[in-house]
Amino acid sequence: MRETNREQAALWGGSAGQSWVQAQGLLELMFQPLQDLLVDAARDTSPSRVLDVGCGTGGVTAAIARALGKPCVGVDISEPVIAAARARTEPGATFVRADAQVHPFEPASFDLVVSRFGVMFFQDPVRAFANLRRAVSGGGQLRAVVWRGAADNPFMTTAERAAAPLLPDLPARDPDGPGQFAFGDADRVRRVLDRSGWTGVDIRPLDVVCAFPEPELVRYLSLLGPVGLALQKEDEQTRVRVVESIRGAFDPFVHGAEVRFTAACWLVTATAG
């Protein structure tokens, strides 16, 4: 595998990727509305072949292949999540472990590139999107959902704020580096796409209500985000203590038997010139 993003490859090939696999069902339920949005986008563009970037365990890839009856290729840098994706055996869905920033895709081999939270982790996003543009035929489309800023997504940062006194070594988020909120600045996203050769760039706010059963909240806290990753290095007693301590901070998001929050995102669209 050609690869330049070694730090992300190590992270997602290890603890982060393994956590993503363990939380696969929870994540797919939580982000189902965004999967539906990308499936509808694929129907609207009527592509003959789709590329799903940062496909994770393959939910979006499989759903598009199923809905369109056309090939959909999922690419992800993480071996654990690609192994889980391949276990789906969805007709028309295939999966490649690769760094999409440098992978030698066949030129003009796709009509549509989609991504659900998979394009914010490139070490060199201009290089990555230029590589993706070369993989798309002239007039082909990009449809990506990315997070807006941390301030717009309090649910996503509640755990680290609540856990800070208990886990003082939690790493600070770098808004300009690869990570969840790397594309929070719409102007930056536009510059990246303009410089990488995409045209007709459109970036619109997208606010989507996401939900999952309340009993899954402990699982969420134990596996995902900076706190979940940090807890993997702790002993069981510490993990239990931290999760119990921060659970109350999520009370504003608990509505009866359901945890519910608004995912504040950008819907990014562009055309390959």
Largest sheet: 8 strands, mixed
Number of strands: 8
Secondary-structure class? alpha/beta
Gross morphology is: globular
Indicate the radius of gyration in whole angstroms. 18 Å
Oligomer type: single chain
**Helix share of residues?**
40-55%
Quote the average pLDDT.
94
The parts where pLDDT drops under 50 for at least 5 residues are: none
End-to-end gap: 28 Å
Fraction in beta strands: 15-25%
Query: What is the element string, with H for helices and E for strands?
Result: HHHHEHEHEEHEHHEHHHEE
* SS field, number of helical segments: 12
Topology, element by element:
Layout: H1 6-13, H2 15-22, H3 24-30, H4 32-45, E1 50-53, H5 59-68, E2 72-76, H6 79-86, E3 93-97, E4 110-116, H7 125-134, E5 136-147, H8 154-163, H9 186-195, E6 198-213, H10 217-223, H11 225-231, H12 236-246, E7 254-255, E8 258-272
Parallel strand pairs: 1-2, 1-4, 2-3, 4-5
Antiparallel strand pairs: 5-8, 6-8, 7-8
Question: Could you give a quick summary of the protein structure above?
Answer:
The chain is α/β, with parallel strands linked by helices. The protein has helices spanning 6-13, 15-22, 24-30, 32-45, 59-68, 79-86, 125-134, 154-163, 186-195, 217-223, 225-231, 236-246, and strands at residues 50-53, 72-76, 93-97, 110-116, 136-147, 198-213, 254-255, 258-272.
Description of the molecule:
Helices cover 40% and strands 24% of the residues. It contains twelve helices and eight strands. Strands 1, 2, 3, 4, 5, 6, 7 and 8 form an eight-stranded mixed beta sheet that branches. A hairpin with a 2-residue loop joins strand 7 (254-255) and strand 8. Helix 2 (15-22) runs parallel beside helix 6, helix 4 runs parallel beside helix 5 and helix 10 crosses helix 11. The longest helix is centred in the N-terminal third of the chain and has 14 residues, at 32-45. The mean pLDDT is 94.
